[in-house]
Amino acid sequence: MTDVKKLYIKTYGCQMNVYDSERMAEAMGGAGYVETQEPSEADMILLNTCHIREKAAEKVYSELGRFRALKVEKPDLKIGVAGCVAQAEGEEIMRRQPLVDLVVGPQSYHRLPEMEVRVRKGEKALDTDFPAEDKFDTLRHRPKAARGPTAFLTVQEGCDKFCAFCVVPYTRGAEVSRPAERVLEEARDLVARGVREITLLGQNVNAYHGAGVGGDWSLARLIWALSDIEGLERIRFTTSHPNDMQDDLIAAHGECAKLMPYLHLPVQSGSDRILKRMNRGHTADGYLRLIERIRSARPDILLSGDFIVGFPEETEADFQATLDLIEAVNYGYAFSFKYSTRPGTPAAERPQVDEAVKSERLQRLQALITRQQRAAQDAMVGRTVGVLFEKAGRLPGQMVGKSDYLHAVHVSDAGAHPGDLAQVEITGSGSNSLAGRIVAI
Ligand code: 5AD
Ligand code: SF4
Question: Out of 152, 255, 262, 438, which residue is the most buried by the measure of CB atoms under 10 Å away?
Answer without folding.
Answer: 262
